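Example 3.
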Amino acid sequence: MLKKILLVVLVLVLGGVAFVVARIGPRNVIGMLRYDQRQEGKLHPGDRAPDVTLVALDGQTPLTLASLVGDKPVVLVFGSFT
Amino acid sequence: MYRKYGDRVRFLTVYIKEAHPTDEWQMDSNEKEQVCYPQPRSTAQRVAIANDFVKRFHYELPLAVDPIENPANALYAGWPERFYILDERGVVAYKGKPGPFGYHPEEVETWLASRFPARDSAASSGRNSLRLIQRNARIAALTSSSR
Protein backbone atom coordinates (compact mmCIF):
# COMPACT_ATOMS: atom_id res chain seq x y z
CA MET A 1 0.00 0.00 0.00
CA LEU A 2 2.79 2.39 0.98
CA LYS A 3 4.60 1.67 -2.26
CA LYS A 4 1.50 2.53 -4.25
CA ILE A 5 1.10 5.81 -2.42
CA LEU A 6 4.74 6.67 -2.99
CA LEU A 7 4.39 5.76 -6.63
CA VAL A 8 1.35 8.00 -7.02
CA VAL A 9 3.17 10.86 -5.28
CA LEU A 10 6.19 10.35 -7.51
CA VAL A 11 4.06 10.39 -10.63
CA LEU A 12 2.30 13.54 -9.47
CA VAL A 13 5.59 15.28 -8.71
CA LEU A 14 7.09 14.28 -12.04
CA GLY A 15 3.93 15.33 -13.81
CA GLY A 16 4.06 18.68 -12.07
CA VAL A 17 7.67 19.18 -13.00
CA ALA A 18 6.95 18.23 -16.60
CA PHE A 19 4.04 20.65 -16.70
CA VAL A 20 6.16 23.51 -15.39
CA VAL A 21 8.99 22.75 -17.81
CA ALA A 22 6.57 22.55 -20.74
CA ARG A 23 4.84 25.75 -19.72
CA ILE A 24 7.91 27.87 -19.06
CA GLY A 25 10.10 26.19 -21.62
CA PRO A 26 13.16 24.05 -20.99
CA ARG A 27 15.46 26.85 -22.07
CA ASN A 28 14.02 29.19 -19.50
CA VAL A 29 14.10 26.56 -16.78
CA ILE A 30 17.78 25.94 -17.44
CA GLY A 31 18.44 29.65 -17.67
CA MET A 32 16.62 30.33 -14.45
CA LEU A 33 18.50 27.60 -12.62
CA ARG A 34 21.90 28.70 -13.91
CA TYR A 35 21.67 32.45 -14.27
CA ASP A 36 18.95 33.81 -12.05
CA GLN A 37 20.71 36.48 -9.99
CA ARG A 38 17.72 38.12 -8.38
CA GLN A 39 18.45 39.19 -4.85
CA GLU A 40 16.46 40.99 -2.24
CA GLY A 41 19.44 43.16 -1.38
CA LYS A 42 20.41 44.79 1.87
CA LEU A 43 18.82 48.19 1.34
CA HIS A 44 15.48 48.91 2.90
CA PRO A 45 13.12 51.86 2.93
CA GLY A 46 14.42 54.31 5.50
CA ASP A 47 18.05 53.51 4.77
CA ARG A 48 20.33 56.16 3.39
CA ALA A 49 20.95 55.40 -0.26
CA PRO A 50 24.60 54.61 -0.83
CA ASP A 51 26.44 56.68 -3.34
CA VAL A 52 27.86 55.07 -6.43
CA THR A 53 29.64 56.40 -9.46
CA LEU A 54 28.15 55.60 -12.84
CA VAL A 55 29.27 56.41 -16.36
CA ALA A 56 27.43 58.58 -18.84
CA LEU A 57 26.57 57.37 -22.31
CA ASP A 58 29.73 58.93 -23.69
CA GLY A 59 31.61 56.28 -21.75
CA GLN A 60 33.74 58.85 -19.99
CA THR A 61 31.79 61.28 -17.86
CA PRO A 62 31.25 60.08 -14.30
CA LEU A 63 27.92 60.60 -12.62
CA THR A 64 27.37 60.08 -8.92
CA LEU A 65 23.99 59.28 -7.45
CA ALA A 66 24.75 61.73 -4.68
CA SER A 67 24.83 64.53 -7.22
CA LEU A 68 21.17 63.89 -8.03
CA VAL A 69 19.93 64.04 -4.47
CA GLY A 70 18.75 67.35 -3.12
CA ASP A 71 15.76 69.38 -4.11
CA LYS A 72 13.73 66.61 -5.76
CA PRO A 73 13.00 62.94 -5.21
CA VAL A 74 14.88 60.56 -7.47
CA VAL A 75 13.34 57.60 -9.26
CA LEU A 76 15.92 54.97 -10.12
CA VAL A 77 15.10 52.49 -12.84
CA PHE A 78 17.49 49.58 -12.96
CA GLY A 79 17.48 47.50 -16.09
CA SER A 80 19.15 46.47 -19.31
CA PHE A 81 18.37 46.02 -22.98
CA THR A 82 18.06 42.26 -22.88
CA MET B 1 5.28 59.00 -15.76
CA TYR B 2 8.48 60.74 -16.75
CA ARG B 3 6.60 63.33 -18.76
CA LYS B 4 4.08 63.77 -16.01
CA TYR B 5 6.45 64.15 -13.08
CA GLY B 6 9.74 64.96 -14.75
CA ASP B 7 9.64 68.59 -13.67
CA ARG B 8 9.34 67.63 -10.01
CA VAL B 9 11.22 64.38 -9.85
CA ARG B 10 14.58 63.28 -11.19
CA PHE B 11 14.52 60.07 -13.14
CA LEU B 12 17.60 58.03 -13.80
CA THR B 13 17.86 54.73 -15.55
CA VAL B 14 20.80 52.75 -14.26
CA TYR B 15 21.93 50.48 -17.03
CA ILE B 16 23.19 47.33 -15.36
CA LYS B 17 24.47 43.94 -16.47
CA GLU B 18 22.43 42.20 -19.11
CA ALA B 19 19.60 40.02 -17.94
CA HIS B 20 19.41 37.78 -20.97
CA PRO B 21 22.62 37.87 -22.96
CA THR B 22 23.26 35.36 -25.71
CA ASP B 23 25.96 33.60 -23.72
CA GLU B 24 23.81 33.15 -20.64
CA TRP B 25 20.04 33.07 -20.36
CA GLN B 26 18.98 33.98 -23.85
CA MET B 27 15.26 34.58 -24.37
CA ASP B 28 13.25 33.62 -27.43
CA SER B 29 11.60 37.03 -27.42
CA ASN B 30 14.99 38.72 -27.67
CA GLU B 31 15.93 36.54 -30.62
CA LYS B 32 12.71 37.44 -32.38
CA GLU B 33 13.35 41.12 -31.80
CA GLN B 34 17.02 40.80 -32.60
CA VAL B 35 18.15 41.94 -29.21
CA CYS B 36 21.15 39.68 -29.09
CA TYR B 37 24.20 40.69 -27.11
CA PRO B 38 26.71 38.69 -25.14
CA GLN B 39 27.36 39.75 -21.57
CA PRO B 40 29.74 42.73 -21.78
CA ARG B 41 33.24 42.18 -20.48
CA SER B 42 34.13 45.86 -20.24
CA THR B 43 32.44 49.11 -19.35
CA ALA B 44 32.91 50.27 -22.93
CA GLN B 45 31.01 47.26 -24.23
CA ARG B 46 28.18 47.88 -21.79
CA VAL B 47 28.05 51.54 -22.74
CA ALA B 48 27.81 50.54 -26.40
CA ILE B 49 24.79 48.32 -25.73
CA ALA B 50 23.20 51.05 -23.64
CA ASN B 51 23.60 53.43 -26.55
CA ASP B 52 21.97 50.88 -28.87
CA PHE B 53 19.09 50.65 -26.43
CA VAL B 54 18.62 54.41 -26.30
CA LYS B 55 18.72 54.74 -30.06
CA ARG B 56 16.41 51.86 -30.79
CA PHE B 57 13.68 52.99 -28.42
CA HIS B 58 14.32 56.72 -28.59
CA TYR B 59 14.61 56.39 -24.85
CA GLU B 60 13.85 59.68 -23.17
CA LEU B 61 14.90 59.15 -19.59
CA PRO B 62 18.33 60.15 -18.39
CA LEU B 63 20.49 57.05 -18.36
CA ALA B 64 23.84 56.19 -16.85
CA VAL B 65 25.75 52.95 -16.99
CA ASP B 66 26.92 50.80 -14.13
CA PRO B 67 30.64 50.16 -14.64
CA ILE B 68 31.66 46.62 -15.47
CA GLU B 69 32.53 45.92 -11.83
CA ASN B 70 28.79 46.31 -11.15
CA PRO B 71 29.02 48.57 -8.10
CA ALA B 72 25.48 49.89 -8.44
CA ASN B 73 24.01 46.46 -8.88
CA ALA B 74 25.94 45.20 -5.88
CA LEU B 75 24.60 47.97 -3.68
CA TYR B 76 21.05 48.11 -5.00
CA ALA B 77 20.43 44.52 -6.15
CA GLY B 78 18.93 45.93 -9.31
CA TRP B 79 19.19 42.87 -11.54
CA PRO B 80 17.25 42.21 -13.74
CA GLU B 81 15.14 45.33 -13.25
CA ARG B 82 13.97 47.21 -10.23
CA PHE B 83 12.65 50.55 -9.07
CA TYR B 84 13.80 52.70 -6.20
CA ILE B 85 12.66 56.12 -5.06
CA LEU B 86 15.02 58.27 -3.03
CA ASP B 87 13.60 61.23 -1.21
CA GLU B 88 15.18 64.68 -1.09
CA ARG B 89 17.40 63.64 1.82
CA GLY B 90 18.80 60.70 -0.11
CA VAL B 91 16.85 58.16 1.90
CA VAL B 92 15.22 55.14 0.29
CA ALA B 93 11.52 55.96 0.22
CA TYR B 94 10.43 53.08 -1.97
CA LYS B 95 12.06 49.86 -2.95
CA GLY B 96 10.44 47.69 -5.55
CA LYS B 97 10.97 44.01 -5.93
CA PRO B 98 13.09 42.50 -8.65
CA GLY B 99 11.51 41.99 -12.02
CA PRO B 100 9.90 40.71 -13.94
CA PHE B 101 7.31 39.60 -11.43
CA GLY B 102 8.05 42.26 -8.85
CA TYR B 103 8.45 45.11 -11.29
CA HIS B 104 5.47 47.37 -10.77
CA PRO B 105 5.67 50.87 -12.21
CA GLU B 106 2.19 51.54 -10.93
CA GLU B 107 3.57 51.40 -7.39
CA VAL B 108 6.04 54.11 -8.29
CA GLU B 109 3.28 56.17 -9.81
CA THR B 110 1.15 55.71 -6.70
CA TRP B 111 4.01 57.04 -4.60
CA LEU B 112 4.49 60.00 -6.91
CA ALA B 113 0.78 60.73 -6.99
CA SER B 114 0.73 60.71 -3.22
CA ARG B 115 3.76 62.97 -3.03
CA PHE B 116 2.47 65.32 -5.72
CA PRO B 117 -1.32 65.10 -5.54
CA ALA B 118 -2.07 68.30 -7.47
CA ARG B 119 -1.62 66.79 -10.90
CA ASP B 120 -2.89 63.33 -10.14
CA SER B 121 -5.75 63.32 -12.59
CA ALA B 122 -4.49 61.31 -15.50
CA ALA B 123 -3.08 58.13 -14.13
CA SER B 124 -0.15 56.61 -15.91
CA SER B 125 -0.22 59.11 -18.73
CA GLY B 126 3.47 58.88 -19.35
CA ARG B 127 3.96 55.22 -18.73
CA ASN B 128 4.94 54.43 -22.26
CA SER B 129 8.02 56.54 -21.95
CA LEU B 130 9.57 53.83 -19.86
CA ARG B 131 10.57 51.41 -22.54
CA LEU B 132 12.02 49.06 -20.02
CA ILE B 133 8.51 48.47 -18.78
CA GLN B 134 7.37 47.38 -22.19
CA ARG B 135 10.24 44.99 -22.49
CA ASN B 136 9.51 43.68 -19.04
CA ALA B 137 5.91 43.01 -19.96
CA ARG B 138 7.05 40.96 -22.90
CA ILE B 139 9.34 38.95 -20.67
CA ALA B 140 6.56 38.37 -18.18
CA ALA B 141 4.21 37.29 -20.92
CA LEU B 142 6.76 34.91 -22.33
CA THR B 143 7.53 33.46 -18.96
CA SER B 144 3.91 32.92 -18.07
CA SER B 145 2.80 31.56 -21.39
CA SER B 146 3.70 28.33 -23.02
CA ARG B 147 6.64 28.02 -25.23
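Chain A has one domain: 2-68. Helices of chain A lie at 2-24, 26-35.
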